[in-house]
Amino acid sequence: MSLIGEGANFRGPVRAEAALAYAEPSAAGVGDYLALMKPRVMSLVVFTALVGLAIAPVHVHPVIGFTALLCIAIGAGAAGALNMWYDADIDAKMTRTAHRPIPAGRMMPGEALAFGLTLAAGSVAFLGLVANWLAAGLLAFTIFFYAVVYSMWLKRSTPMNIVIGGAAGAFPPMIGWAAATGGLGVEPCLLFLIIFFWTPPHFWALSLYRSEDYARAGVPMLPVVAGDAETRRQILLYTIVLVPVGLAPWALGYAGALYGLTALAAGAIMLVLALQVRRERRPAERASRRLFAFSILYLFLLFAVLLVEQGWGGLIGRVAA
């Protein structure tokens, strides 16, 4: 029987006793507001959005391109702030997140909520005015999906939270493409699918060696609910799907040979690591940690090669010509 069925706490972000503790004036500094925006997640969002914008088959004025990426970054920060506001009770119970501004007592929840809502409204409105309203609408939906659908519903209710919620992190390439073209196409949809299928093995590898943290906080991550063996099986299954999806841009003619070779080699390594995770048993965690670390490199390599080959490479070629 899982912890989830044994009285785990799924209440909202701020309990009555916690609210009293936060009644004092805020001690938050600039660094706390930056932390609220999850800068590491934001950097990945901006990078994948940049690829979507750069490979679009249109010329984008540098000022518009930079402003669009800035709006996407601020929108990602808004989603992170709203997530931290709502998850303050969970964050306080987890070793990995207890130092965040709200559970550490440096910021009042209301400040985080106001900050997140302000960033969300401003980023969406400005992106619509500078680029187009399709991109702005996608950004608004992404913020809503992460803050409401994932944070407020999926994360506390189902072990498939990462699978469905991972869509929020997969939208940035589509937003970047839409900002450039005013529409959508097959290419950004393929990038969406790569990130979507990459997310479960990436986060489940992390959850395997952080399962006690999630159990203590009452978050129904797959290892907590279904156990390590099922989580390792699911990691392998999703990786098996990810490898051909990662090759799809080359197979369908949207990327060149360099991308194809990179996706094939990196995918093979991902698959080998997933097989090692499948065979690994607790308390050993080396394979899970290796897969988590390499999965970040995997996504970076695919998008970086695509950026050089189809984005920056094309730009350099046009200038040289």
Return residue spans where pLDDT drops below 50 for at least 5 consecutive residues. 1-23, 313-321
Number of helices: 16
- What is the CA–CA distance across the termini? 66 Å
The whole-number mean of residue pLDDT values reads 87
Total count of strands:
0
- Rounded to an integer in angstroms, the radius of gyration calculated over CA atoms is 20 Å
Q: How many domains, in number, for the residues?
A: 2
Describe the protein in words.
The protein has two domains: 29-183, UbiA prenyltransferase (Tetracycline Repressor, domain 2, Orthogonal Bundle), CATH 1.10.357.140; 185-321, Four Helix Bundle (Hemerythrin (Met), subunit A) (Up-down Bundle), CATH 1.20.120. Helix 6 runs antiparallel to helix 7. Mean pLDDT is 87; it is low at 1-23 and 313-321. It has helices spanning 16-21, 30-36, 39-54, 62-86, 88-93, 109-130, 133-157, 161-165, 167-170, 172-181, 186-209, 211-217, 222-226, 228-251, 257-279, 286-320. The termini are far apart. The chain has 321 residues and is mostly helical. It is 76% helix and 0% strand.
